[in-house]
Amino acid sequence: TNKGISDNGHFIQCLTSLIINSTSINLTDQCIDFYRQAFNDEKHETRVRLFQCINQLFQCTTIAIRNQFIQIFTPLLLNELKKYTEDQQQEYMIEILKCFETLLTIVDSTLRIRLASLIIPLFINFLPDSTISLQKVNYLNARLISYIIDRIQYLIPIYSNEFRIILQTLPDLRTKLENAIRRQQQLKQLQQQQKDEKESNYLSKHYNSSMNTSSQVPSLPLRIDFSNFKSS
To answer: To bridge 50 with a disulfide, which of 10, 38, 71, 137 should be the other Cys (CB 3.0-4.6 Å)?
Structure first.
């Protein structure tokens, strides 16, 4: 059945949990087909849950199962990234990039530089060119850009050797990364400035409003008539 698709990916989640927690499960072609069908589904919830499940399966402690999912779905995930357009959901791309980051952490150290040579340029190539204005970057895919820069800055100290080799080999990529980080800092400063200006305008407006209100309140009489008060 197409149960995994019709319920927005909840069946895939349950199946993934079963696979990960089982000590003696054999993956059948039908089982793999559930994931393939979900991969081709157009529903946002289904695809996001699928990518999250694939990420979990890439970390499965049963090596045979983990390797099978890696072999089948890594090319499909890579193809999804290549098809990316700015109209697509940024959340899709973030979940897929998480899968590739997982691959980087689990791969054998002797193979890591080869995988990093694929993944690091993959991340950096999503960053905008320096010709795109800050306002346009903020409008188009700010969440995706922010995520990528945060993850790269997190990964650089962990895989410093891999980053050094790749960025030395591809100087244009290094320049693009440095420019993107600098522009991200400028964008944050711009956003903070806009926030401060908005708060300042609000406080100024609120203050003027309160002053106008207080000026309309009748003033207390300067004299009080005590003639009705008699001493006992």
So the answer is: 38
